[in-house]
Design a protein that fits this description.
- With 174 residues, the protein is of the alpha+beta class.
- The chain has one domain: Nuclear Transport Factor 2, Chain: A (Roll).
- Helix content is 46%, strand content 25%.
- It has five helices and six strands.
- A hairpin with a 2-residue loop joins β5 and β6.
- The longest helix has 27 residues.
- The protein is elongated and about 90 Å long.
């Protein structure tokens, strides 16, 4: 006795099988690309926590991982424009530095203060302390300034400010 499966049913079963495999694959790699949770300080505001989370993702690097994982983790904490900046500007430099120094580091972050505030944009000063700093750094602890935007009620990183911007922001006007 031979079982005959109509052609349309065979196609539907193949497509269904492929979808199930894709879902299983996604669930298998999701922990590798999902942002790593960090402890939330009691009473921390959502914008300060978003700043700390973004800096944590940005400064958590591992030369044994594909740079795409780092980019994905940082982009999970960023606006669309922030993700483009990370992808186009930071990723090549981070990849070169991580490989050159074989960096495997995490960090501890602490929001220091809200530096600037508009309706939908905040700039936070965040103190970052690298767990395993690499040679050539002036200090394993530094202050980073993060611009955040409120997108649909959620604070996301637009970018980390450049040193020239930080100097303009923190230098008193004459």
């Amino acid at each position: 006795m031979q079982i005959v499966i109509p052609k349309k049913l065979r196609i539907i079963l193949i497509v269904l099988f492929a979808v199930v495999l894709l879902i299983i694959g996604f669930l298998a790699i999701r922990p590798a690309v999902a942002p790593r949770p960090i402890a939330t300080a009691t009473g921390a505001s959502s914008d300060s926590q978003a700043a700390a989370d973004a800096v944590t993702a940005f400064y958590t690097m591992d030369y044994t991982e594909d740079i795409a994982l780092w980019t994905t983790r940082v982009c999970a904490m960023a606006t669309a424009a922030g993700c483009r900046t990370v992808r186009d500007f930071y990723t090549p430099d981070v990849q070169a530095t991580v490989q050159k120094h074989q960096i495997q580091t995490g960090c501890k972050t602490e929001p220091v203060r809200l530096v600037s505030e508009t309706n939908h944009s905040h700039i936070w000063q965040v103190r970052v302390s690298l767990v395993h700093p690499w040679p050539g750094l002036a200090s394993p602890t530094q202050d980073v300034y993060v611009e955040l935007s409120n997108v649909n009620g959620k604070w996301l990183m637009d970018r980390i400010l450049f040193q020239q911007e930080v100097e303009r922001l923190t230098t008193p006007a004459p």
